[in-house]
Amino acid sequence: MSVTAAGTSFEVEAIVFDKDGTLISLESYWLEPSxxxxxxxxxxxxxxxxxxxxxxxxxxTGLAPDGLLATATLSDLAVQxxxxxREAGVSETQAHTRAITARKAATQLSSVQPLASLGxxxxxxxxxxxxxxxxxVATTDDRGPTLDVLRRLGIDDLxxxxxxxxxxxxxxxxxxVIETIAAAFGIPTSSVxxxxxxxxxxxxxxxxxxxxxxxxxxxxxxxxxxxxxxVTSIDELSAx
Length: 240
Description:
alpha/beta
């Protein structure tokens, strides 16, 4: 089946979507929880807050597109948080406790954040599924929050398979992400198209030998991410 994005066509049987920054606005969902994460972990220390922001990818203007808060798993974020705290002289026990507390506070806040979809997600996915494509989601978020977002978006019935960070496979950009989905669908990885918003998503596609990578960039460009095609939202994907 031919899927077209920004004038480029891919012969595929399935599409794998990233979640944050692809289906929904990353900052609408994760900016305030990220700020809470750093505030909680730094325990009121401006110096620690600055150090955590630099390491995790949060600054005065928002989330760094390819920073850890935008692309890493929650487990990796907790590890990096603990490491920054230890480097600043916080005890091992306190650093671990603060990292775990920050993770819990941020994930709880994210669960009640309003979702801003990038385009008419439901209609776009309905059209792709109606054309016979298999649809999946691969994310560095955990499974519980991911399923909740898909339900809140009203697309959980269209997504056949989900790979999340707390599943028993390596996280993006490991090729196992695409390989697992392809195996579940009974197709080769070369018949899978990856759609995402970061270099990590692009690397996931290429590491697994997927058909290609389509970058979702609401402003229409991100030259630092190597993509086969760039769209402003998934509304621009068509299949026949």
